[in-house]
Design brief:
With 253 residues, the protein is an alpha/beta fold. The protein has a single domain (3-213), classed as Spore Coat Polysaccharide Biosynthesis Protein SpsA, Chain A (Alpha-Beta Complex), CATH 3.90.550. 45% of the residues lie in helices and 18% in strands. It contains 9 helices and 9 strands. The chain has helices spanning 18-27, 48-55, 73-83, 103-110, 130-147, 163-166, 171-174, 180-191, 215-252, and strands spanning 3-11, 33-41, 62-66, 88-91, 115-119, 126-127, 159-162, 196-200, 202-203. The strands form 2 sheets. It has a 7-stranded mixed β-sheet. Helix 8 (180-191) packs parallel to helix 9 (215-252). The protein is globular and about 50 Å long. It starts with a strand and ends with a helix.
Amino acid sequence: MPNKVSVVLPTYNESGHIVDLVKNVIDNIPSGWEYEIFVVDDNSPDHTHDVVTNAFRDNPSVIAVLRTFDRGFAKSIRTGIERASGNQIIVMDSDFTHDPVEIPRLLQVGAVYDIVSGSRFCAGGRMMDTAHYLASMLYNWFVRIVIRTQIQDNLGGYFTISADKLHHLPYDLIFFGYGDYFFRLLHYAQLARLSIVEIPAQYLPRVSGNSKSRFVRMLCSYSIAVFRLKFQAMRHVRANKEQTTDRCKQGLR
């Protein structure tokens, strides 16, 4: 069975560069791989969906998906994942901050590990926006301390994962909100004992349009999500201890 990669691109107001991005992704798919690209658009006012539909009308491997209700970044990613038929899935941002040139390396290492994440913070990784880089690094330390992840870049969101392993993770507990979905994905992947590795990646500046990120709002919502995940993990550990204690008591009777 040939290798097939499904690339998921969530979009909102990305019409200025989405065609170039999709072409760039196609150019970086390694030989020997079949591909499909899902451009999952949250009903952008700038008609991103129509732009993609018209530009790739003759390429059935580029699928424009329009979402008109229950919108949201992580939910768009879930929509693309649920429609994917590839044995390997790549998720990346649609503003060129995630460079398609990394795709061959992600897939190469993905043959060995369940999840391969393009990281700004492991040796060789970088981000062009220095202020954003430093702020993200500090916040990642906070995330690592609170939920005890072994990953250095918990908010990068540029990764590949084995479709077979992904489909066993709890989608409802992961795919909501914004970029916080990614550290939830890593958390539940660790609980499932999936193998995870980071490779260095360079994060580029947005090429056009405006960022949808709002720093203070994201800081608050992400922090709430981190502590909620921490409390859920603590309850899980407590419940396991109680079950073990009950089994021991029953064994002594």
